[in-house]
Design brief:
With about 100 residues, the chain is of the alpha+beta class. It has 2 domains: about 1-55; about 55-104, no CATH class. It has one helix at about 1-55; strands at about 65, 70-75, 80-85, 90. The chain has a two-stranded antiparallel sheet with strand order 1-4. It has a two-stranded antiparallel ribbon with strand order 2-3. A hairpin with a 3-residue loop joins strand 2 and strand 3 (about 80-85). The longest helix is centred in the N-terminal third of the chain and has 54 residues, at about 1-55. The protein starts with a helix and ends in a 12-residue tail after the last strand.
Length: about 100
């Protein structure tokens, strides 16, 4: 068994010595391709995410009470009070975003 392992190792070393340049070039190209892909993917995600963050409202907008007794008051630019006066209620919103530091 030891001779078989030694023989296999000898053949692998010979193969690597003969093809070392090609193996190293290919490995370098693969690594560069992966790096480029990861950077592109990161930039793509940033570009897609940035407009969403910039356009996000600080408070929910476009409330429409469909059912129940609901009183909605905006207090300043960063606070909203929603009081429900019935057992159940349904409110449809145009958008429901709560920005950092905003209170609902």
């Amino acid at each position: 068994m030891k001779n078989k392992i030694s023989s296999t190792r000898k053949h692998l070393n010979k193969f690597y010595s003969h093809h070392r340049g090609r193996i190293n070039r290919t490995a370098g190209r693969v690594a560069n391709t992966i790096k480029t892909g990861m950077v592109s993917l990161g930039l793509f995600g940033f570009v897609l995410g940035a407009p969403g963050a910039a356009l996000a409202a600080n408070l929910p907008t476009g409330a429409q009470v469909v059912s129940g007794d609901v009183n909605i008051n905006q207090i300043g630019s960063d606070a909203m009070r929603i009081l429900q006066g019935s057992q159940s209620a349904i409110v449809n919103w145009q958008s429901f975003d709560i920005g950092r530091g905003a209170l609902v």
